Amino acid sequence: MSQYLTTRELADLLRIGERKAYDLASSGEVPCVRAMGKLLFPRAEVVAWLNASRSGPQVAEPPLPPIVAGSHDPLLDWALRESGSGLATYYDGSFDGLTRLSERKAQAAVLHIHEDDGFNKNSLRDAFGEAPVILYEVARRERGLLLAPGVTDIKAFEDLKSRRVILRQDSAASQRLFDTQLESHGMTRDDLDVQPGCARTEEELAIALHDQKAEAGFGLGALAKLYNLGIVPTHSERLDLAIWRRAFFDPPMQKLMTFLRSEQFSLRAREFGGYDLSGLGAIHHNGASG
User: Fold this and answer.
1) Integer Cα distance of 83 and 164 in angstroms
2) Quick check: 249 and 255 in contact, CB under 8 A?
3) pLDDT confidence band for 210 (50 / 70 / 90)
4) Are 169 and 205 spatial neighbours (Cβ–Cβ below 8 Å)?
5) Where residue 2 falls among pLDDT bands split at 50, 70, 90?
6) Which domains does the chain have, with CATH numbers?
7) Separation of alpha carbons 113 and 95, rounded Å
8) d(CA 289, CA 278)
9) What is the β-pairing status of strands 118-119 and 114-115?
10) By C-alpha distance, which of 237, 238, 249, 252 is closest to 286?
11) pLDDT tens, 243-259?
């Protein structure tokens, strides 16, 4: 589902004529942006605008399922279990997590989307506008080229040409970043010996390399030691939880938040390696509406 509506789609949503939709945009009554001569309407902001215009009794929103979607992170995954939060998980990448969060199929999503001026915030705003979603920092972590045991001649992205590489799914932020890095080095996936299938989580990628099903993959430094892998560090990234505000203060999420601030969590991060918790708890976005 696109994050932006066209004028025709807005008109269909509001059950008005396309001319009237243009008039609403021209008068500034409906949230819109102008890009390359076209009018586009942020879906989340239009929904918020409609909600703000309603009258009559307020009906409670249906409860959000106790699910954390988005990207897989071994440290956070361990914390979700160890904290006793009762939150279930559905990991299929940061971009899938944003979709599930917007469709209210999850109450939180794990994100690590690299952006020109930071991480996650612009992608969240594009998807939700100023909807009541909180962006909560968990950690900074190291990412790079993970190498199967015994592989020592891969030092940079350009060394991946014709080598056996395992990929992540397209909805994973790490895969999109990897494709961008290939492009910046004048390469595409066609230049690699891509192995069948893909790793659905960070841990699946590390296990595949440990079992020498591929020579290299783009993964987390935290898993290198655990699976006896080599690593060529290439990126530092911020891992955030995007959380619906009404779920943030509920007992399951608060139990997780309390555990994240515990010495037990800090110790586990040090055992993994590749994590920096100095920014834990920082709020990078707090949607204003709702």
Assistant:
1) 38
2) no
3) very high
4) no
5) low
6) 4-52 (1.10.10), 67-138+237-286 (3.40.190.10), 143-236 (3.40.190.10)
7) 8
8) 29
9) antiparallel
10) 249
11) 999 999 999 999 999 99
Structure tokens that stand for 279 in this block: 């920014």
Residue 227, pLDDT > 60, answer yes
Question: Would you say residue 34 has pLDDT above 90?
Answer: no
Whether residue 168 contacts residue 218, with contact meaning beta carbons closer than 8 Å, is answered with: yes
φ, ψ at 201 (rounded to 5°):
-135, 165
Please report, for residues 1, 11, 51, 250, the alpha-carbon distance to residue 46 in angstroms, rounded to integers and kept in the order given. 14, 12, 9, 27
Handedness of CA 247, 32, 97, 284 (dihedral sign): negative
What DSSP letter does each residue of the chain carry, written as one string? --SEE-HHHHHHHHT--HHHHHHHHHTT-S--EEETTEEEEEHHHHHHHHHHT--SPPPPPPPPPSEEEE---HHHHHHHHHTT---EEEES-HHHHHHHHHTTS-SEEEE--EETTEESHHHHHHHHTTSSEEEEEEEEEEEEEEE-TT--S--SGGGGTTSEEE-B-TTSHHHHHHHHHHHHTT--GGGSEEPSS-BSSHHHHHHHHHTTS-SEEEEEGGGTTTTT-EEEEEEEEEEEEEEEHHHHTSHHHHHHHHHHTSHHHHHHHHHH-SEE-TTTT-EEEE----
